[in-house]
Design goal:
Elements: E1 6-9, E2 12-16, E3 27-30, H1 33-41, H2 48-65, H3 71-86, H4 93-108, H5 112-142, E4 149-153, H6 168-177, E5 182-187, H7 194-205, E6 210-213, H8 218-223, E7 229-232, E8 236-238, E9 243-246, H9 249-258, E10 263-266, E11 272-273, E12 293-294, E13 297-298, E14 311-314, E15 321-324, E16 327-329, H10 333-340
Parallel strand pairs: 4-5, 4-7, 5-6, 7-10, 8-11, 10-15
Antiparallel strand pairs: 1-2, 2-3, 8-9, 9-14, 12-13, 15-16
Helix pairs in contact: 1-2, 1-3, 2-3, 2-4, 2-5, 3-4, 4-5, 5-6
The structure holds 5-S-methyl-1-O-phosphono-5-thio-D-ribulose.
5-S-methyl-1-O-phosphono-5-thio-D-ribulose binds at residues 46-49, 92, 155, 157, 161-162, 167, 194, 233-235, 245-246, 310.
Length: 342
């Protein structure tokens, strides 16, 4: 069993507090949507699919918190909760996707009781579907990897970034489960170490061979033939094949291009944004203290200016294929991605 990141139990949301990993595996329980919003903002839960489901569960909590007796009152309460949840993080498209789906379910119901029941059931379904979709994606992606491949990944696109199983790490799990021997190289992913704290933790937890490298050893690893293939997750994929993912993904992809290493992205269709253009996408900027220290230890002079974007964009020309639950999109991405939505 892989780790279960988030679930609905007894009218509450339970999630792993990822800020405590890898040292403490602790679960937190929330009964108010504002607590879920704080959890997304402070990275108690993170990763595009996981925050999509968190948003849905947040609205399910809001439907229980609101004591309205008229449908219109409950809908306006949910609209306000949706706004607060939506504003927590701007880049991952799954958050808006999860919130919109739940609002659609709420609007289609007739009474306040029906809204509550349907919204909770649908949010639970989204959580279950997430795991099934990841397994489907894993099966599709596993065909791209060979026995004894060493696979590099960046950030955490695993069970911890989803409800369970993972996107990029789901592909690695499925490859291993298909009987192939695989090794993983995980980047530490500065500044907040999702690679060393989360990817290394969950792969070790599941008994998958993993070596950790500093982000600065990406070029060295490829230049010295240590990497056969790369697979990463995504926070947003545009219809053109532009991929937004954790800061540093662009550097990994550029190095892969330079060294002819196949570079794959694994993302469910809920991560695709078929409307936006690159200039529309907001890149989240995070606080400077994530860069000026490691944990509680200060590693930079006081008052230093910091640039700390959370995500970057990898252009389609550096991407070998995008693995989805519907199949693998290959260049030209405009055509292959479009076919998944027809
Ligand atoms: O800032 P984070 O930790 O939420 O960033 C997560 C990533 O960039 C993941 O690679 C992405 O969400 C894909 S998760 C399946």
């Amino acid at each position: 069993m892989t780790l279960k990141t988030i679930e609905w139990k007894d009218n509450a949301v339970i999630m792993i507090d990822q800020t405590k990993l890898p040292n403490i595996l602790e679960y937190v329980t929330y009964t108010e949507y504002n607590q879920v919003a704080d959890a997304i903002r402070t990275l108690v839960i993170r990763g595009a699919p996981a925050i999509g489901v968190s948003g849905a569960f947040g609205l399910a909590l809001a439907s229980l918190q609101c004591k309205a007796t008229k449908k219109s009152e409950l809908i306006s309460y949910l609209e306000n909760a949706k706004k607060i949840l939506f504003e927590t993080r701007p880049t991952a498209v799954n958050l808006g996707w999860g919130l919109d789906k739940i609002m659609e379910v709420a609007n289609n119901a007739n009474t306040v009781e029906e809204i509550r029941t349907n919204v909770i059931e649908y949010a639970k379904k989204m959580a279950n579907d997430d795991v099934q979709i990841n397994m489907e994606m894993g099966k599709n992606g596993s065909k791209l990897f060979n026995d004894n491949d060493t696979i590099m990944t960046h950030c955490n696109a695993g069970a911890l970034a989803t409800v369970g199983y993972g996107t990029a790490l789901g592909v690695i799990r499925a490859t291993k489960d298909s009987g192939k021997n695989v090794k993983v190289i995980a980047t530490e992913t500065r500044p907040i170490q999702q690679g060393s704290r989360l990817t290394a933790f969950e792969l070790k937890h599941d008994g998958i061979d993993v070596s950790l490298i500093p982000d600065t050893a990406v070029g060295y690893s490829m230049a010295n033939g240590l990497v056969d293939k790369i697979v990463v997750g995504a926070d947003r994929v545009l219809r053109t094949g532009h991929v937004y993912n954790k800061i540093g993904t662009y550097q990994v992809a550029t190095m892969a291009h330079q060294h002819n290493v196949p570079f794959y992205v694994a993302a469910p269709l809920s991560t695709f944004d078929m409307k936006s253009n690159p200039e529309d996408v907001i890149i989240e900027q995070r606080k400077g203290s994530e860069v000026t220290g490691i944990g509680d230890k200060k590693t930079a002079p006081d008052g230093i200016d910091v640039i700390n974007p959370a995500f970057d964009m990898t252009p389609p020309e550096f991407i070998t294929g995008i693995i989805t639950e519907k199949g693998i999109a290959k260049p030209p991405f405009e055509n292959s991605i479009k076919s998944f939505f027809e």
